Amino acid sequence: MHAWEAAPSVEGRLRTAPPHALVATAARLLAQRFGAEDVTLFLADYGLTVLQPVTHLPHTGDPVSAHDGPAGTAFTTQKPVVEVTADPATELVHLPLTVRGDRLGVLTVRVPDTATTSGTVLALLDFATALGHEVATAGRDTDLYLQARRTRRLTLAAEMQWQLLPGRGCARDEYVIGAHLEPAYAVGGDNFDWSTSADHLTLTVTDGMGQGIDASLLTTLAVGALRNARRAGIGLADQACLADQAVYAQYGGKMYASTLLLRFDLATGRVRAVDAGSPRLYRQRGGTIEHIELEAQLPLGMFEETLYEEQTFHVEPGDRLVAISTGVHGTRSAAGELFGESVLSRILSATRQASPHETARSVVAGLVEHVGGEDLLADAAVVCLDWTGRGTGGTPEPRSAD
């Protein structure tokens, strides 16, 4: 056998499996390599409340909590959990299914109790990572995994919005991002977006005015215009200008989108920012939480040919940034109390040791509690970023927005 004719790897076998047959292929491979008896792929639903098993669609099996129990613990902590079962000969291993920081769900594998050594668990974790990448890729060719995430039908506006998002998380050595969006099954105009390169991270939070399809169409245009300008290599302020022109050309000032644009230098921690509307940005440094005051400029599309200017501030290793849309900071309770900085500060202080993903979810959960546990009337987007940076020790540039 020639070198190029060697037996295919696990990754290779998963890659060549039909998109709809990934679970069956994974079960077969796990049985061969680890003696696995049962294999279940759980995917997190859009609201991040439950983990749904991928079975024979359009029906899924019974869901389990995304926050409690062995599978929920594996999902929230992003660590494998070994569960001792009633069968003394086997154990269940719950493995987080994550792609580049985007938490997809959990892979649960029943293996012989003699197989749950640390080396085997690490090998199973590598397998889950490979499967996660294939599930993410398969979403281009099958609806199976998108359908499995749903506890109920999405509105058309929400369908459009979720397809527009890059994911719900992203991780590199320099940063970790976690984001959450509500109402998950009926969201219309809120969006977050990011793109990373060798030396920079661009992050945006957009809030399109209106509700339903109108808001979703507006946000789709604004985000598409921002991406088009960004991919042309244009600076941050000019990205806002071109998106502003695109939105105004379509709506003539009758509809507009509020956007916060941030561009991080991964080596220095210098952040360029354009505040085009109402999303707010907070920085948590040590025990201090502060609102980063940026010059409020006009939303995209409100007036013709608006000019935008960049500001700068710095982040340091250990900083946490939290961006929230109007649907968070502008929401009032039934008693008329605004979800203001005091409520947000309490939540951020309580979740300082939690991951960015869990912090973003907790902010939205606190918002729902603030309004009395009812469905949110306005979209709410929260993006949480933990900054590590590269620690180059370079001389910081002058600060203009700290």
From TrEMBL:
Key words of the record: Hydrolase
Domain PPM-type phosphatase: 172-387
Keyword Hydrolase: yes
One Pfam family per UniProt: SpoIIE
Protein name as it appears in the record: Serine/threonine-protein phosphatase
Native species: Streptomyces pyxinicus
Upper lineage: Bacteria, Bacillati, Actinomycetota, Actinomycetes, Kitasatosporales
